[in-house]
Structure formats: structure tokens, C-alpha cells
Description:
Layout lengths: L13 E4 L3 H11 L3 E6 L6 E6 L2 E6 L8 E6 L7 E3 L5 E6 L14 E3 L7 E2 L5 E4 L10 E7 L3 E2 L5 E4 L2 E8 L2 E5 L6 E3 L4 E3 L6 E6 L3 E8 L4 E4 L22 E3 L7 E4 L2 E5 L2 H4 L5 E7 L5 E3 L6 E8 L1 E6 L5 E4 L3 E3 L6 E4 L5 E8 L15
Amino acid sequence: MKNPGAKQIRSAEVVLPSGKLDETLAFFMDELGFRIDKIFPPDAPRLAVITGHGVRIRLDPEAAAGAGTLRLNCTAAINGQTLVAPNGTKIQIGSAEPVIAVPKGKQSFELARIAEASWHVGRAGMKYRSLLPSRQGGRFGASQIKIEEPGPVRDYVHYHEVRLQLIYCHKGEVRVVYEDQGEPFVLRPGDCVLQPPRIRHQVLESDGGLEVIEVTSPAEHHALTDTLLMLPSAQFHPHRDYSGQRFVRHVASESRWVPVGRGIDARDLGITTASSGLATALVVRVREGASVRIGPAPTEFLFRYLLRGTARLECEGQEPTEVVAGDAWHIPRGTRHALRSVSSDVEYLEVVLPGRRRGSGFAHHGAK
């Protein structure tokens, strides 16, 4: 028998055992608010179809006894309960909205080398490489994401339940669209966006050479589809507040470099203000012969990705090591570290939590 094609399917049902049908119907209708759509036969019912809360259930006497768990997404006030229906079905009560659970985390030095990169297929067919395999105890995640095929991307309007999420375009181009932010636009190398919590967005198409760096907190979070919203939005609200954050689009071609140390310049990506001080993101450019020396960092998260060039990474408690473009590392709080023997074209992406106000925090110090 051939599998039915999508055009042939008219509806779908979850099949559960009927048990004692009258008792099972009373439970689903009186306690859970379902309604009867179909019952058979009317004079001596043994099968029924009920609907409610977006699900259609077939209570069938021939279904395997005791099979099935039904999850009902409710208010947080009753989250965690489990009920058992007369037909043996477990009713799991969960929260209607995912909770952003940010683990306390465990800081450690971590170095991800491009030479040892391992890629896997993630959402919408995109390829992912973890830049923080330990996830710092689950509190932070960092990934390099690439799209190798040019043309439309198999994406859909969706949003993320996150504390922080930023995307930095490293290579290639990608066309994207965001809720309340106007028409679709193209991210090019050096561009960056802060995606505030729950902002709807969609990846539309890529040039096939795309590579972006994504930093998130927590490391694991929900991506939810919004089937009702069409993008671009009819309204334009560029300064809309999303859980205390706002969308920001940093365009590299319109930005400027500012000296932050001897032989060192930086390009601020505008994340500090937009995230209400949660994070700061910079691109740092080091001139040949200079070094980056930083004292014990008063941060919970200090992540760097080497965009181009080579250097020697020195970190307290670790053996000095050479780093090349594509390598990424995390420096734990209170650890002295430095970049020395830098090549003429060194640039790196730096993401720090908590964010640094202008003139505060630790500085980059360069020396010939």
C-alpha cells in the first residue's frame, strides 16, 4: 500500500484506547474540556472522536491498552501535575510558554580549533559547529553556522526564548527579515544583529558562502514557529521593547574604528545599549607588533573568535598556544591572559557579559 500524499490527507487523529468509553468521555469532557465530534454506534457507543485545545483524539477499543501520554499546556500555576484518565492515558500538565532557564553555569578555559572542527546539520538544514562544546555549564552557547547552497533557505517565521542572542556575519551574505523592522535586508561581512527575546524573524536566502557566529544565553533554548504572522510586518516600530531589549542592526560599512589601546582599534557593535547593559560586542583590530594584555577579567563571560590573522594566546594556567583564523576561546573570570606575536591582519570578535559601559570595565592594552 502506498503512503498517502500530503494532498490526500484530510485530517489527523491521535489514537488512544477507549477503555470504559462512558467513563473516559466523562473525564475528557468534564475535567479537561473536550467535546464529542463523532460517536459510534449511537445506540451502544464503543468508539468516539473528541477534539479540544488544538488536538483531535480517536478513542478506539482496538487501540493498545494503556498507550499514550497527552500533554496539556496550561498556566504556570498548575505546571507539573500528572493525571490518569480511566482509559489509562497519562495527562501531563506543562507550561504553555517555555521558561527561559539560565543555568548557574561553570566557568572554564576553552579553546575550539578550526583544524578540529566538527559540523552537524541543525535547524532549517543549516550546518553548525560548536565553539563552546562545554557550554560553560549550560549558561552560554556559541556556534559557527554556515549555509553552503545558494538560493532560498528552508526557514519559516520563528522566534527564540532566550536571555541573549546575537548574530555576527563573518563571510558571505544572507537576506533576512525581522518583525517590526521594515523590509528584508542583507547581512554582509562585519554586520551584526541583536535578536531580542521573542522577536519574530526569518532567514530568506543566502549566497551560498555564508558563515555567521552566534552567541546565546542559555546554551539550549526553544525555537518556536509562528504560523500566523507574515513578514515583513505591516507596522514599523524600530525601537520596540522586547523584554527590556531592542533590535539592533550594526552595518560595518557605516561604522568607525576607535582607538582602545596602543596599536589597537575597536568597532563597537552597539549591543550594550540595545541589551540594556547585558552584553557588549566588539570587533578588535590589532596592528602588527602590538600585543593585547588584559588583567584578571571581572566578567562572567569573555568569548573571542579570531576572524583573521594569527597570534600566540597566553592564558594563566595554560600552555601558550598558537591560534589561527577560525579558532575561538573563552577566558574564565579572574584569569590573566594576552595575545602576542600577532600578524599584520589580526581581527577578532569579542563578546562580554555583563556589558561594559563606556569608560568602565577592563581595557585593551597594546605595546610594541
